[in-house]
Design brief:
Order of helices and strands: HHHH
Radius of gyration: 10 Å
Number of strands: 0
Shape: globular
Helix content: 55-70%
């Protein structure tokens, strides 16, 4: 989630950065991000901020 939050002010991480950091597509990254949000019980304000930039798939 730290990577996703870092890119929030810029409208989200570019696909090439996601691939370079994690070796996955943007769609797969969003799936993994939301799985992490659920697993960690991220607070509501974080969820709202992330959802604005990384919609759930």
């Amino acid at each position: 989630m730290a990577f996703a939050r870092m890119w929030l002010p810029y409208g989200g991480a570019p696909a090439d950065e996601i691939f370079e950091q994690f070796g996955m597509s943007t769609r797969r990254f969003r799936e993994a991000l939301w799985a992490s949000v659920r697993a960690t019980g991220a607070n509501l304000s974080d969820q709202i901020a992330l959802a604005a930039v990384y919609p759930r798939v």
